[in-house]
Here is the input.
Amino acid sequence: MMSTKQQISPETQQTALGVAKANQKPGQTKEQTKLIAQGIEKGIAEYKKQQKAKARERNKQQKKQQANRQLDEQFPQESEADLPHERIHLTSWLPWGLLLVSWLGFAWYVWL
Here is the structure.
């Protein structure tokens, strides 16, 4: 695995050094503070890298959704209004037909 040194911006370096100095403990040497600042720089760089990856992923999702919308506009899907009336008619009579059959069965059972 090849390790390349990332270029860290001067603003990031200043921010990291400011945070390291703000949290400096009494008796802490300049070398220790510098090492802490370097760790903070790496953390900031990693955070920025993650945010860029998330932004790329969001852009991909937005483009995918936009493409899907365009496809939907070009080829609209059938809605319920486009369904045949026979199917809707059958489903509305089905519960009543079952009720009638059950009552007829009950009447036949009681009569015999």
